[in-house]
# Entry
Amino acid sequence: MKTNYIEHIGIAVKNLEESIKFYENIFGLKCYATEEVKEQKVKTAFFLLGQTKIELLEPTDAESAIAKFIEKKGEGIHHIAFAVENIEVSLKEAEEKGIQLIDKTPRKGAEGLDIAFLHPKSTAGVLMELCEKK
Ligand code: CMX
# Structure
């Protein structure tokens, strides 16, 4: 696969508003967008640092992946997202190399990106997201 840069780092938080204040007040960053991703049952907030974003994720439902993550591990880094060229081909290649796919085909994520997750059990414990802006 051709990976160009880290698109974003996803961080699970309990309270989006409080966490936004933390990144703005301590790091001098500016939250440039918030968005609810209903399909994922999360509210998101974005900060841009160079080419890479920080994506804060607050669960909107107890059944959301983020709620389960916080319950089990607490707040913290949830996933790393790579900007790839041709997400469909990248997924196929990863699967052929024995990686367990969470999403066999891309779906729409925040900011309209095509996204797909690889299972942390086959990626050394880190939830990886592939994304492509089309
Ligand atoms: N990073 C590393 N490991 C993780 C993890 C994460 N983010 N989330 C779960 N796991 C681990 C758990 O610790 C658990 O490990 P053990 O079996 O050793 O205890 C295992 O994966 C299974 O976890 P679980 O709590 O039973 O949860 P599920 O199997 O139901 O789901 C996962 C896990 C990764 C398949 C699911 O969270 C998922 O599909 N994630 C992708 C989608 C997503 O995260 N969406 C959030 C919003 C994304 C966005 O919009 O940017």
Summary: The two ends are 17 Å apart (CA to CA). The beta strands are 2-12, 33-37, 42-49, 52-59, 76-85, 107-108, 114-118, 128-132. The chain has a mean pLDDT of 96.
